[in-house]
Structure formats: structure tokens, C-alpha cells
Design brief:
The chain has 266 residues and is of the alpha+beta class. It is 18% helix and 29% strand. It has a single domain (13-265), classed as Sandwich (Jelly Rolls). The protein has helices spanning 21-29, 43-53, 89-101, 110-119, 154-157; strands at 13-15, 34-37, 59-60, 71-73, 81-82, 85-86, 125-127, 129-130, 133-134, 139-142, 167-178, 182-183, 186-192, 218-221, 228-231, 235-239, 242-244, 248-257, 262-265. The longest helix is centred in the middle third of the chain and has 13 residues, at 89-101. The relative contact order is 0.23.
């Protein structure tokens, strides 16, 4: 894709050996587009998790809304949203996922892995709470056929507050535990939702036609095994289809709350 002539020098991806407070702050402030942490999870642990998941009960996102098909393990809040509210069955799905994971005989849960990635950078990090109940943290997703171009923004998507604390900025985090030999890139565009964009929404889907980001500066980032990836999902983004093989990640949303904490949810 040809880049526009006027390039924002702050819309860049940087690499780090760990997630640092400055990385989180830089993304929130708009000084960065993405942070990559190669080898955040050792290859051996990635292989152990994917091997254990081979016999795990994988679910799918709501296929009436999410197409192409995306397999998952654990609840996704947007599959449990009606009229800007989180349905009660979200909590049932969270309990079922946690019970199923406990049978896999692995040392870490998705929640453990997500929280551990941020604890050195931001000691006050914990699962977000809604009506005093802890949100589920850590969803496993297998995205092989790609995603629709979309954005994620809890402030816009949920009436009132999603969490008990006000979310003033939102990030998305993934750890790639299996990557295809080709394809599967994440594409970020330097554009956020605008009201006229609704004319380009895909009928029945959750996303938009790619022309919504036409002629906008973008980054195309190919995942590596064990890499941690942090970005602002309020920018339009997508995942390209894997040319061959499987693309599996563990991820969550990360919110900076009005009391200065990091709250995680999936």
C-alpha cells in the first residue's frame, strides 16, 4: 500500500525487551503507534500452550456478526453486548473458560500471562471490575482467515461505564503463541472513527470496508513467535489472512482508568 506524502513521524512501532511504563505512556499520549516485545514468551512455552490447546474445547465468535470465522477460547465481551450493555451470560462464559483451562495442566493461565507482562511497567495493574466483579482476562484467538477492518473503543461501544472506574484510554495486547510462515500481519491505520464512517460499515458485520482508511498512513507488522504486541485499538486495524499455517494469540484489552490504574479485560 502506498503511503501518503504527509507522514506523522510519531506513528511508529518500537521494539523493547520488556513493556515499560514509558511505552504505555507513549501509546496513550500518541507518541507511538505500537510496541513490540520480541520473545516475551519463550518458544518452548508457546509450543506447550498450543499443544495443550489441541484437545481444548474451542468456541467461535458469533458467526452472524464475525466473518471470516475466528476460533476462540474464553469469552469476548463484544459477543455478550446488547444495546451497549454487557449481558449476564458473559460471566457464565468466563467461569466455563476458567474451569476448562484448569484441566489443561499448564503452569500459567491467560490471565497470569497478561498481568505478568505489565506488572514491571505499572505495579498497580489488575483485572477490571464491573459491578465489583472481576472481568475475565485473557482470550485465546485463532485468526487464520483475517479480520474485518475495525476499531475497539469501550467508551463508544458501552453505555455509561464498562468498568466501575472510568476508562480514559484503551490499549490492546497480544502474545503470539503460534505464527504462520507467511501472512497474518497486523495492519494499523492512523485514523480513528468519524461519524461519516458509518456509511462504510459492512452490513451485518462488526467492521468496515477497507476504503474507510484509504490514503491514510499505515503500519504493517508481521508477528513473530512469542512476541508481545501492544497498540491503541481505537485506530482502525485489521489482520491479513495467513498464507499457510495457523495464527494463534493470547490477548486482552488494557485500560488506563481515572484513578491511574491499569485495568485488564477480555
Amino acid at each position: 500500500m502506498q503511503q501518503p506524502r504527509n507522514i506523522d513521524p510519531l506513528f511508529v512501532a518500537v521494539e523493547s525487551d520488556v513493556i515499560r511504563r514509558a511505552d504505555v505512556a507513549g501509546l496513550i499520549a500518541g507518541r507511538l503507534a505500537a510496541v513490540r516485545v520480541p520473545g516475551l514468551l519463550p518458544a518452548a512455552r508457546c509450543h506447550a500452550i498450543t499443544a495443550a490447546l489441541a484437545d481444548a474445547p474451542m468456541d467461535r465468535y458469533d458467526e452472524s456478526r464475525v466473518f471470516p470465522v475466528v476460533a476462540k477460547f474464553g469469552p469476548a465481551i463484544n459477543d455478550h453486548r446488547d444495546a451497549g450493555q454487557l449481558r449476564e451470560d458473559y460471566w457464565d462464559a468466563a467461569r466455563a473458560a476458567e474451569k476448562s483451562w484448569s484441566t489443561l495442566d499448564l503452569p500459567d493461565t491467560p490471565r497470569d500471562l497478561c498481568l505478568a507482562a505489565f506488572q514491571a511497567a505499572w505495579p498497580d495493574v489488575a483485572p477490571g471490575r464491573r459491578h465489583r466483579r472481576e472481568m475475565h482476562v485473557g482470550i485465546v484467538r485463532e485468526i487464520n482467515a483475517g479480520l474485518q477492518v475495525h476499531f475497539d473503543d469501550a467508551v463508544r461501544e458501552y453505555a455509561g461505564r464498562l468498568l466501575d472506574s472510568e476508562v480514559v484510554a484503551q490499549l490492546a495486547f497480544n502474545i503470539y503463541i503460534r505464527v504462520p510462515p507467511a501472512g497474518g500481519e497486523t495492519v494499523l491505520w492512523r485514523r480513528r472513527w468519524q461519524p461519516d464512517d458509518e456509511d462504510l460499515r459492512i452490513p451485518g458485520g462488526y467492521g468496515f470496508h477497507e476504503s474507510v482508511a484509504a490514503d491514510v498512513q499505515s503500519l504493517t507488522l508481521r508477528p513473530t513467535l512469542g512476541e508481545g504486541f501492544l497498540f491503541d485499538p481505537r485506530h482502525y486495524h485489521t489482520v491479513r489472512p495467513a498464507t499457510d499455517g495457523r495464527r494463534i494469540s493470547i490477548g486482552c484489552f488494557v485500560g488506563l482508568t481515572d484513578d491511574g490504574r491499569l485495568a485488564l479485560w477480555s
